[in-house]
Design a protein that fits this description.
heterodimer; A: alpha+beta; Glutamine Phosphoribosylpyrophosphate, subunit 1, domain 1; eight-stranded antiparallel sheet; 5 helices; B: alpha+beta; zymogen (chain B); protease (chain B); threonine-type endopeptidase activity (chain B)
């Protein structure tokens, strides 16, 4: 499986992780856990923020090698703000995702990082894009990524509904993160969630003890 | 990924039941479920194999891992249980069947690569589910196994509730199998269900087009 291969080959700090992004009626929620590990046996950070703001209403989250991801997002942030100044308008989410995709595809031999880009723009409203390891760009209503995502494919397939309300979507994202963190040993810590709508951006942080508990906990 | 070899997988690859298996207890019995795909490399060599194998009238096991190893263990234990039940003069306990499977799995753990979940009904303990992975023996309210199980850990963690009825358990098993089969390349085909209670064992087969569908199907 692509993601397992990615995490075991990464040298140095990797965000063995769970990330997701889900659209709802009027916005999008992007979320992640907060653990960074080395080799799957040492937690190098318990509180890392994997949700990077690349523009006012566009966030991306990172999975894979932390160094690669930070370098790419830094370059992407610069390119996107330059682009938006030239165009004299806020960038489209698709444009931001394309910038990441170009960087990943052109450097595919050296890089080991995958991204989820989510945001809101005036043209298409809330959107979610995945940029996979080799540089594939795909638009989806919701997407999950990182090593912990393996365990919640079934849950996400069963529970996602299009056009959810913001509260339902928050519950779905929180539950999905909690379930993945409960089964994946390289995901954990707190749950970071960002709600992006036309009105603005809202950060929600849910500490480990306030996460939903399931039957065996 | 481009395929280098020009010969088909079934000529050279080991036959595995890359699979999804599940067993769950309810008050008065158990429900076992499995998919039906057997693969050798990337070839599907049998699309309708029943992986729920009889060990005794009211004790079944679910097979996963190497097809040959799993079938052999099941046959050996079937024979040993027949002898045992004649010696004690009554139906064997589920725990005895699980112990026999565990003994073989543990003794030959280096040579074998199969995981069997043992489940059934006996008059002393009611419905019971035992896992025998790698030679351990553990009773659990429900168990999932096989390659497809990774994708549904989140779903079963979220959806399992104590004291479900027989019909709820059957629905739970069918939903779980359907989700796993749609995400795991090594699971597919039809779903087999066995419900065991005081009265006996009832086998059921659910065809691919009758399985529940979820959001993106």
């Amino acid at each position: 499986m692509e993601r397992h291969l990615m995490d075991s080959k990464i040298k140095g700090v990797s965000t063995g992780t769970t990330i997701l992004a889900v659209t709802f009626n009027g916005g999008v929620i992007i979320g992640s856990d907060s653990r960074a590990s080395i080799g799957g046996y040492y937690v190098s950070s318990k509180t890392i923020n994997k949700l990077i703001q690349v523009h006012d209403r566009i966030f991306c989250c990172i999975a894979g090698s932390l160094a690669d991801a930070q370098a790419v997002t830094k370059a992407a942030k610069f390119q996107i703000s330059f682009h938006s100044i030239q165009m004299e308008s806020p960038p489209l989410v698709k444009a931001a995702a394309s910038v990441l995709k170009e960087l990943c595809y052109n450097n595919k031999e050296e890089l080991q990082a995958g991204f989820i880009t989510a945001g809101w723009d005036r043209k298409k409203g809330p959107q979610v894009y995945t940029v996979a390891l080799g540089g594939m760009l795909l638009s989806q209503p919701f997407t999950i990524g990182g090593s912990g995502s393996t365990y919640i494919y079934g849950y996400a397939d069963a529970k996602y509904k299009p056009d959810m309300s913001k509260e339902e979507c928050l519950q779905f994202a929180t539950n999905a993160l909690a379930l993945a963190m409960g089964r994946d040993n390289v995901s954990g810590g707190v749950a970071h969630l960002v709600v992006i709508t036309e009105e603005g951006v809202e950060h929600v942080v849910i500490p480990g003890d306030k996460l939903p508990k399931f039957h065996d906990e | 990924m481009l395929e280098e070899s020009s010969e088909p997988g079934w000529l050279s690859e080991e036959v595995k039941t890359g699979t999804t298996i599940i067993a769950i207890e309810f008050d008065g019995g158990v429900v076992l479920g499995s998919d039906s795909r057997v693969s050798a490399g990337e070839t599907v060599v049998n699309r309708v194999m029943n992986k729920l194998s009889l060990l005794h009238d009211k004790i079944y096991c679910a097979l996963s891992g190497s097809a040959a190893d799993a079938q052999t263990i099941a046959e050996m234990v079937n024979y040993q249980l027949d002898v045992h039940s004649i010696e004690v003069g009554e139906d064997p306990q589920v725990r005895s069947a699980a112990t026999l499977v565990k003994n073989i799995s543990y003794k030959y753990k280096e040579e074998l690569s199969a995981h069997l979940i043992v489940a059934g009904w006996d008059k002393r303990g009611g419905g019971q589910v035992y896992v025998t992975l790698n030679g351990l023996l553990s009773r659990q309210p429900f168990a999932v196994g096989g390659s497809g199980s990774s994708y549904v850990y989140g779903f079963v963690d979220a959806e399992y509730r104590k004291a479900m009825s027989k019909e709820d358990c059957q629905q739970f098993v069918v939903n779980t199998l359907s989700l796993a089969m749609s995400r795991d390349g090594s699971s597919g085909g039809v779903a087999y269900l066995v419900t065991i209670d005081e009265k006996g064992a009832e086998e059921k087969c659910i065809l691919g087009n009758e399985l529940p569908t979820f959001y993106d199907q």
